[in-house]
């Protein structure tokens, strides 16, 4: 890959992120000066605003793939990891999904989730919508809040951010997903090309601080497909990763997958 392509790609994204997020961060500090010592809070304020622009574009680009991945397969109680501004809920077939559980640790995104969920026919009033503020790694807390195991887990561009992703994945599947339940993902991943992977590794220590914890270099597709239980057996009855039509030189190269639990 040409040096200029990789450098310009990320420099452009970092510039956009700062341009969109910084005014909100400065306003928040002006209103509450003690926030200057709270990087996590500032990062969330920035990201909630940045994702209004980035998320929309990302959703439009992924629409065809997300429709084929989510609409025919999501059913019953659906847990959406890192629901963001609610871009996943419009893909749910309301006649097959009984409850939408949106897991989103950034509270600045909750009003958007609520709005999109209402438009898709889910509401807290009738119990078909639940918004949780914990992270995906807090599996015990998720289970006690939802009060039942779930039929479908969806992760769209979120496993790049989750702490301890492999342990979290195993716990989500073992403890929260019902047998026969489906895990659907659409993620940007570590490239199979050595030159692209080099740049992903190069940029990740910077990008992770700019973009609210996002890692460019996680082989999430392999972590999901190779997931095994305590005795080393696959947790899946069936499943496969699918290619997405995405430029190979892009540092956000992505794959999606559909896996069914044993
Ligand atoms: C790139 S955004 C994707 C949002 C959404 N899935 C979409 O497709 O528009 C990643 C999301 O993961 C959330 N997130 C961050 N840490 C998380 C964690 N530990 N567990 C679950 N979600 C997390 C972020 O707040 C953010 O909304």
Automatic annotation (TrEMBL):
Pfam families: Methyltransf_23 (PF13489). It comes from the Eukaryota. Transmembrane segments: none annotated. InterPro entries: SAM-dependent_MTases_sf, Thiol_S-MT. This is S-adenosyl-L-methionine-dependent methyltransferase. It comes from Mycena albidolilacea.
């Amino acid at each position: 890959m040409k040096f200029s392509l990789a450098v310009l790609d990320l420099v452009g994204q970092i510039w956009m992120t700062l341009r969109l997020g910084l005014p909100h961060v400065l306003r928040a500090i002006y209103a509450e000066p003690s926030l200057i010592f709270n990087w996590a809070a500032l990062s969330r304020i920035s990201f909630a605003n940045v994702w209004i622009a980035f998320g929309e574009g990302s959703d439009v680009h992924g629409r065809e793939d997300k429709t084929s991945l989510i609409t025919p397969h999501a059913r019953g109680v659906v847990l959406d990891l890192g629901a963001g501004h609610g871009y996943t809920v419009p893909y749910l077939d309301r006649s097959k999904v009984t409850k939408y559980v949106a897991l989103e640790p950034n509270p600045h995104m909750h009003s958007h989730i609520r709005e999109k969920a209402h438009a898709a026919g889910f509401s807290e009033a009738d119990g078909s919508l639940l918004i949780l503020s914990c992270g995906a790694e807090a599996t015990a807390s998720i289970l006690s809040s939802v009060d039942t195991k779930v039929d479908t887990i969806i992760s769209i561009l979120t496993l790049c951010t989750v702490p301890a992703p492999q342990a979290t994945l195993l716990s989500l599947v073992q403890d929260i997903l019902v047998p026969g339940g489906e895990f659907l993902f659409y993620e940007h991943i570590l490239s199979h090309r050595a030159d692209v992977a080099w740049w992903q590794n190069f940029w990740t220590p910077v990008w992770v601080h700019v973009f609210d914890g996002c890692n460019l270099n996680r082989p999430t597709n392999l972590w999901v497909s190779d997931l095994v239980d305590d005795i080393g057996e696959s947790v899946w009855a069936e499943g496969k990763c699918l290619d997405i039509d995405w430029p190979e030189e892009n540092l956000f190269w992505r794959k999606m997958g559909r896996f069914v639990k044993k």
